[in-house]
Amino acid sequence: MTGTLLDVRGVRKVYEGHGRSVEAIRDLTFTVAKGEMVCVVGPSGAGKTTLLKCIAGLLAPTSGEVVLEGEAVAGPPPGMAVVFQEYGRSLFPWMTVRGNVELPLKQKKLPRARRVELLHQALDAVGLGDVHGAYPWQLSGGMQQRVAIARAIAYEPRILLMDEPFAAVDAQTRADLEDLVRSLWQGLGVTTLFVTHDIDEAVYLGQRVLVLSAAPTLVLDDVTVDLPAERDQLSTRSSARFAELRGHLFAQIQRAKTYHPPDPPHPPGGN
Amino acid sequence: MTALLRRAARNTLAAAALPIALLALWWVFTADSDSYYLPPLSDILASVDDVWLHSGRLRTDVLPSLLRLLAGFTLAVLLGVGVGVAIGSSRRLRAFCEPVLEFLRAIPPPVLVPVLMLFAGIGNTMKVLVIVSGCVWPILLNTVEGVRAVDQVLLDTARCYGVRGPARLWHLIIRSASPQIVTGMRQGLSIGIILMVISEMFAASNGLGFSIIQFQRTFAVTEMWTGILLLGLLGFLLATAMRVFERRALNWYLGLRQTQRGGDR
């Protein structure tokens, strides 16, 4: 590990609207080191998506800041790629698979030869070398999410954000995609922040797991996953250590559901 | 392949059956008509050749009409999509413009003809402006709706991947709104055909609408009927061209909808 890549400092998010304000995130502070794979789990309604949008620069935090490679995030940073949960809504349905993967590369003004190279590498890496000309809606859900992942890695990001990317695919596909993400991460060494509501998935994928409380959200726990780097669906998931970590996190999540943080020392909005 | 051909043939036959039946009815019922205003269809069809082909009216009357329609329709598309994207993208602008749009839309374009004649004379400019003034509304309002409905996840995706400026406008906003835009264009085109004819009825020296009125005023009833038939045929051809364009431009949308209806995922 060579230093901090992502630094989330005291991020708080309050949604204002219709005369009342909802505090989605109370205080999130954590760092992600370069090359690390960190999973974020929390009970539903834990503001996971809000957190991810704040980090991605899609949403401005009410207070606190997100620092990526020493620079405060104030809009989507160029070195970041995002894979959304709703694959069906995040791929452009009027573009072929090739068009979808290539569009961001064109925006980066990469020369054609380099674009083609990246396109082929990325699609081969996700096992979709033969569907360049297909439209996303002609593919199964799992394949669509593979296209979204290919688009993300072709972008050559320094950090990859994934927002519950496998919540909407079936269990078989999900296991395959988890292994794909693991192998891509190991192969490319790209720093990855993976948000999920699935404890098993978090333990299986991550080097570290952050546990979030229910809204207003805090980081309740930061668990190091000391499983071997080589993981597979069968032996890793049936190992004693996996069960232990899983049990620990399960208890934490149960606690997270009912945990209500004490009121902040300063009145809301008074910083 | 033969099955495909057979199906195509059956579809064509099904589509042509009713028009053929109606024409046959018309033919039979007017066969020995001695009404001055309702000549036999056989007479009408027989005079098509003389009235439109030999006289050169296709070039002197039909072509100018079509060019004016094309100019008006093209301008209406550019204006409608341009302004529609601007209004659809901004909630403020929408609140600001909506009452005025509703007011303008409610004015029947034909009543604008005398007014436009004052400003633009009785030449091509006036006729094109009349066509634009009617065509533009369905295109504009549909574009506004289409732009408003652009998916939030797609907008976020585009932001994350640095899709900005002209690329965002074309690859995201306009493509996403294209089903609604094309619907607006289809409605606009049929309004445009009507206005093409109406604008030529007021003050004109050529055109399809002008010819029909001219025939009517000189009691050339058979010729008048040929003009009406020609106008109908023209509308049909333009609608078909529109449908071909739609199928090409919205190929992805038709496929997507079919997949969603199939519900196999």
UniProtKB/TrEMBL annotation, chain A:
All copies of domain ABC transporter, residue ranges: 6-239
GO molecular function: ATP binding; ATP hydrolysis activity
Keyword Magnesium set for record: no
Swiss-Prot/TrEMBL keywords: ATP-binding, Nucleotide-binding, Transport
A Pfam family recorded for this sequence: ABC_tran
Record-linked PANTHER family: ALIPHATIC SULFONATES IMPORT ATP-BINDING PROTEIN SSUB (PTHR42788:SF13), TAURINE IMPORT ATP-BINDING PROTEIN-RELATED (PTHR42788)
Protein name: ABC transporter
From TrEMBL, chain B:
Compartments it resides in: Cell membrane
Pfam families attached to this UniProt entry: BPD_transp_1
Gene Ontology BP terms: cellular response to sulfur starvation; transmembrane transport
Membrane topology: Multi-pass membrane protein
Top-level lineage group: Bacteria
Transport in keyword set: yes
Domain ABC transmembrane type-1: 62-246
Gene3D superfamilies: MetI-like (1.10.3720.10)
Entry keywords, A to Z: Cell membrane, Membrane, Transmembrane, Transmembrane helix, Transport
Transmembrane segment boundaries: 66-90, 111-140, 189-213, 225-245
InterPro entries, A to Z: MetI-like, MetI-like_sf
GO cellular component terms, A-Z: plasma membrane
Major subcellular location class: membrane
Similarity-based family: Belongs to the binding-protein-dependent transport system permease family.
Cross-referenced PANTHER family: ALKANE SULFONATE ABC TRANSPORTER-RELATED, MEMBRANE SUBUNIT, TAURINE TRANSPORT SYSTEM PERMEASE PROTEIN TAUC
Designated name of the protein: Nitrate ABC transporter permease
Organism field: Micromonospora sonchi
Gene that specifies this protein: ssuC
